[in-house]
Amino acid sequence: MRKVLLRWNVSSLSGIDEVQTLMEICERIEVLGHLSVESDGVTQLVEVKLRIGRSLSEISELRSFEVIEKHEEDEGGVLASILCTHPLAISAIQLSNIFVYPPYGIDSQNGLEFRIYGLSESVRSFLDLVRTVMPPDSISVQTFKGEDSSELDFLTAKQREVLELAVTRGYYEEDSGVTLKQLAEEIGIARSTIGEHLKRGESEIVKKAFGDNSRN
Predict the structure, then answer these.
(1) Where exactly are the structural domains of the chain?
(2) How far apart are CA 96 and CA 123, in angstroms?
(3) Is 147 a residue whose pLDDT tops 60?
(4) How far apart are CA 82 and CA 96, in angstroms?
(5) Helix, strand or coil, per DSSP, at residue 146
(6) Pick from 53, 47, 103, 107: which is nearest to 72 by CA?
């Protein structure tokens, strides 16, 4: 599993047609949540801080954005639902095992930053698309650790990764049809290698669970 943080500086976003126009309309647009995800785009709940003299309706004039509904407005900005069909959003929809976590957004001073989480092979495919469609200024990739990962610190990062993938895909379930070959292809390593990581990880867990008691 992988967590990835992607960042774009304002100067980089200024060269992208729709994004540059969006920053001319808004000082800031922040995605607070995803209301629905369909094959043609993502309906987002957003908070928009418009520039003086600009209007929410101007966002709908962009090819990849459509304002669905304006919910409320105060001094902090406008709360609205917007359908986003930008190639980045479509790429994330089309690739399985990829999750984009709000809040995230575009700020006219700080640029754009968002995080994705997913299986290693899916993340790699998504990053390949991102580099083509809208190259980020920085990409930070981390092995995902759950809240209780400290309990598995005796495992290597790779052992944790392949064991979590195996559990997620149902490899250990009774009558499972998931094979080592399928897991290996998904994570992008050889079948013999993932088999060895699983074997060693399983061995370490068994030793941790029963080792101390067996010596008493």
Answers:
(1) 2-143, 149-211
(2) 10
(3) no
(4) 23
(5) coil
(6) 47
Quick one: which H or E segment has residue 116? strand 111-118
Residue with token string 């990581």: 197
Distance CA 77, CA 72 (A): 9
Domain 149-211, classified CATH 1.10.10, yes or no: yes
As given in the structure block, the two tokens for residue 49 are 């801080």
178: Cβ–Cβ under 8 A, 6 or more apart, which residues? 166, 169, 170, 171
Q: How far is the C-alpha of 155 from the C-alpha of 87, rounded, in Å?
A: 38
Answer with the residue of higher pLDDT: 2 or 46.
46
Assign residue 115 a region (left: φ > 0; alpha: ψ between -120 and 50; beta: otherwise): beta
pTM over 0.70: no
Q: How far apart are CA 1 and CA 122, in angstroms?
A: 10
- pLDDT digits 0-9 by tens, 1-23: 677 889 999 998 887 888 999 99
Does 213 score more than 70 pLDDT?
no
Using only C-alpha atoms, what is the Rg of the chain? 22
Give the per-residue SS3 of 69-82: EEEEEECCEEEEEE
Interval 178-199 mean pLDDT: 87
pLDDT in tens, 21-31: 999 999 999 99
